[in-house]
């Protein structure tokens, strides 16, 4: 069964959206395997967003991700990588359709409440990054 890494970002935690976001994936029929509330280190945040390290917004992105607790999660289900991206919606609020998580709950590009892996390979990389220590395993 396919697995993905989903994360409620610091703005989502601060705004009290953890339950709403988890609920969307539960009611879709997916299974939550692991969950941890933690404030990421700069190293983990930089590694998570390594593909963006040359972008002008990289510093701001890492600062934002490390600004407070996030909810790091492993979810499982059929075609979950592609379907969860559809449920999350587009990065740019102008393109995020109503009915998607970002379309309903987010209004800016930089603070968009949730991250979801964009491919099976990214999911594997991100799950091993965020759940690296034995203590994190269920
Ligand atoms: P994704 O989160 O939809 O996969 P990515 O392109 O991988 O989008 O970008 C990662 C994150 O970086 C976005 O969720 C957003 O928070 C931030 N980001 C992307 N583009 C911009 C930008 O142009 N300005 C500020 N932040 C951005």
Automatic annotation (TrEMBL):
<keyword id="KW-0460">Magnesium</keyword>
<dbReference type="GO" id="GO:0004550">
    <property type="term" value="F:nucleoside diphosphate kinase activity"/>
</dbReference>
<feature type="active site" description="Pros-phosphohistidine intermediate">
    <location>
        <position position="115"/>
    </location>
</feature>
<dbReference type="GO" id="GO:0006241">
    <property type="term" value="P:CTP biosynthetic process"/>
</dbReference>
<comment type="similarity">
    <text>Belongs to the NDK family.</text>
</comment>
<keyword id="KW-0418">Kinase</keyword>
<protein>
    <recommendedName>
        <fullName>Nucleoside diphosphate kinase</fullName>
        <ecNumber>2.7.4.6</ecNumber>
    </recommendedName>
</protein>
<feature type="binding site">
    <location>
        <position position="57"/>
    </location>
    <ligand>
        <name>ATP</name>
    </ligand>
</feature>
<keyword id="KW-0546">Nucleotide metabolism</keyword>
<keyword id="KW-0597">Phosphoprotein</keyword>
<dbReference type="GO" id="GO:0006183">
    <property type="term" value="P:GTP biosynthetic process"/>
</dbReference>
<comment type="subunit">
    <text>Homotetramer.</text>
</comment>
<dbReference type="Pfam" id="PF00334">
    <property type="entry name" value="NDK"/>
</dbReference>
<dbReference type="GO" id="GO:0005737">
    <property type="term" value="C:cytoplasm"/>
</dbReference>
<dbReference type="InterPro" id="IPR034907">
    <property type="entry name" value="NDK-like_dom"/>
</dbReference>
<dbReference type="InterPro" id="IPR001564">
    <property type="entry name" value="Nucleoside_diP_kinase"/>
</dbReference>
<keyword id="KW-0808">Transferase</keyword>
<feature type="binding site">
    <location>
        <position position="85"/>
    </location>
    <ligand>
        <name>ATP</name>
    </ligand>
</feature>
<feature type="domain" description="Nucleoside diphosphate kinase-like">
    <location>
        <begin position="1"/>
        <end position="138"/>
    </location>
</feature>
<feature type="binding site">
    <location>
        <position position="91"/>
    </location>
    <ligand>
        <name>ATP</name>
    </ligand>
</feature>
<feature type="binding site">
    <location>
        <position position="102"/>
    </location>
    <ligand>
        <name>ATP</name>
    </ligand>
</feature>
<keyword id="KW-0479">Metal-binding</keyword>
<dbReference type="GO" id="GO:0006228">
    <property type="term" value="P:UTP biosynthetic process"/>
</dbReference>
<comment type="function">
    <text>Major role in the synthesis of nucleoside triphosphates other than ATP. The ATP gamma phosphate is transferred to the NDP beta phosphate via a ping-pong mechanism, using a phosphorylated active-site intermediate.</text>
</comment>
<dbReference type="InterPro" id="IPR036850">
    <property type="entry name" value="NDK-like_dom_sf"/>
</dbReference>
<keyword id="KW-0067">ATP-binding</keyword>
<keyword id="KW-0547">Nucleotide-binding</keyword>
<feature type="binding site">
    <location>
        <position position="112"/>
    </location>
    <ligand>
        <name>ATP</name>
    </ligand>
</feature>
<dbReference type="GO" id="GO:0046872">
    <property type="term" value="F:metal ion binding"/>
</dbReference>
<feature type="binding site">
    <location>
        <position position="9"/>
    </location>
    <ligand>
        <name>ATP</name>
    </ligand>
</feature>
<dbReference type="InterPro" id="IPR023005">
    <property type="entry name" value="Nucleoside_diP_kinase_AS"/>
</dbReference>
<keyword id="KW-0963">Cytoplasm</keyword>
<comment type="function">
    <text>(Microbial infection) Catalyzes the phosphorylation of dZDP to dZTP, when the bacterium is infected by a phage that produces the substrate for the synthesis of dZTP (2- amino-2'-deoxyadenosine 5'-triphosphate), which is then used by the phage as a DNA polymerase substrate.</text>
</comment>
<dbReference type="GO" id="GO:0005524">
    <property type="term" value="F:ATP binding"/>
</dbReference>
């Amino acid at each position: 069964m396919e697995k993905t890494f989903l994360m409620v970002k610091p703005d989502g935690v601060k705004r009290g959206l953890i339950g709403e976001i988890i609920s969307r994936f539960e009611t879709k029929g997916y299974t939550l395997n692991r969950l941890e509330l933690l404030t990421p280190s700069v190293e983990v945040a930089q590694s998570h967003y390594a593909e963006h390290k040359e972008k002008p917004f990289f510093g701001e992105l890492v600062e934002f991700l490390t600004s407070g607790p996030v909810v790091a999660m492993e979810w499982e289900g059929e075609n979950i990588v592609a379907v969860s991206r559809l449920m999350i919606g587009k990065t740019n609020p102008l393109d995020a359709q109503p009915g998607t998580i970002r379309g309903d709950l987010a209004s800016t590009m930089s603070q968009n409440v949730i991250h979801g892996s964009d491919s099976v390979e990214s999911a594997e990389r991100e799950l091993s990054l965020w759940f690296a220590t034995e203590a994190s395993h269920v």
